[in-house]
Write a structure and sequence with these properties.
mainly alpha, Rossmann fold, 48% helix
């Protein structure tokens, strides 16, 4: 989200917070679920990382998609049906690249499906965890 850095530097972090709440990444169903409303009240992002310049250290190599085939643990890829298209495509690519990965889409939720639809999210997560106990994954 390159515009975040520009907004923080040119208009201030308070403006960034207001702008972020209007971005598609932060979509919530209406009315706002209680868990999401409580989170938003406590959210105190200071934006310092956007105001300062940081060069990458180069100490951690970038992950590559071909490395994902080597994963042997159960993997759950989960997001809301209102997730931004880029992350939906990323989720599909991860599910395809990771052998045996399970992909779950939570209805009426966006990027923070666990806050928008906590019951649906928890059911999906608990079902996934139960399946790993039964050995249903490679």
């Amino acid at each position: 989200m390159p515009s975040c850095r520009r907004i923080a530097r040119e208009q201030g972090v308070d403006s960034l917070r207001a702008a972020m709440k209007r971005m598609p990444l932060f979509w919530y169903p209406t009315p706002t679920p209680p868990a999401a409303a409580a989170y938003m009240l406590r959210w105190r992002y200071d934006g310092r990382d956007l105001l300062e310049s940081h060069a990458g250290s180069g100490r951690t190599p970038a992950a590559r998609m071909d490395q994902l085939r080597g994963l042997t643990m159960p993997v759950l890829v989960i997001h809301g049906d209102r997730e931004i298209p880029y992350f939906q495509a990323t989720a599909a690519a991860l599910t395809y690249a990771i052998t045996g990965a399970r992909h779950v889409v939570i209805e009426n939720a966006g990027h923070v499906a666990h806050l928008a639809q906590p019951s649906r999210f928890n059911r999906a997560l608990l079902a996934f965890l139960a399946s790993t106990e039964r050995g249903a994954h490679p």
